[in-house]
Design brief:
The structure holds two protein chains of two kinds.
Chain A (H helix, E strand, L loop, with lengths): L2 E5 L2 E5 L4 E8 L3 E9 L6 E6 L5 E4 L2 E5 L3 E6 L8 E9 L5 E3 L3 E6 L1
Parallel strand pairs in A: 2-11
Antiparallel strand pairs in A: 1-3, 3-8, 4-5, 4-9, 6-7, 7-8, 9-10, 9-11
Chain B lengths: L4 E3 L2 E4 L5 E6 L6 E7 L6 E7 L2 E5 L6 E5 L5 E5 L8 E8 L9 E2 L3 E5 L1
Classes of the chains: A mainly beta, B mainly beta.
Amino acid sequence: EDQVTQSPEALRLQEGESSSLNCSYTVSGLRGLFWYRQDPGKGPEFLFTLYSAGEEKEKERLKATLTKKESFLHITAPKPEDSATYLCAVYTSGTYKYIFGTGTRLKVLA
Amino acid sequence: DAGVTQSPTHLIKTRGQQVTLRCSPKSGHDTVSWYQQALGQGPQFIFQYYEEEERQRGNFPDRFSGHQFPNYSSELNVNALLLGDSALYLCASSLFDRSEEPQHFGDGTRLSIL
């Protein structure tokens, strides 16, 4: 069964303290892996798509990487406005559906 | 360029009632997917509509039904509401022929069941 697991569930960082969020997946035929940011009471906002192992994408303080078993979202020198829930989702040729992880709740303290 | 819009933003119902939620996709998109997001959880796929037909379905009972209109907008209907149906209901739009591209989400409808 296709499965996506995110860790940690919650993370508290001081402003400027870099860290990484993990998304591990067990799927049949990965067609794409997506990272979204979700603020309270809002819908997920698209950040990155990764399609093949070794691929990397960057946007401001965020960098996403992909291996054959997991993806990392690296946050460099975070600011309080980076506080949000970060969701990982996969799209597979096995189910042709998007499967989401449960997310990592990030809190960056000033 | 209008993004995905959902209505209403909040809704309160009682057990046993029926509810209809509405979604207009992003301009240019032809596919609508619905998700249920319980508090502290990731979105769970309910179903997807394309060309006015249900194309994919997640593990949800047939109390959950939907419809897509010729203008690509969509409705989610839930009958015989249960307390456990309380959640944020998200609509996402995409292009059917580019399903490997990211979906675009609306801000959801917060449904509370009393």
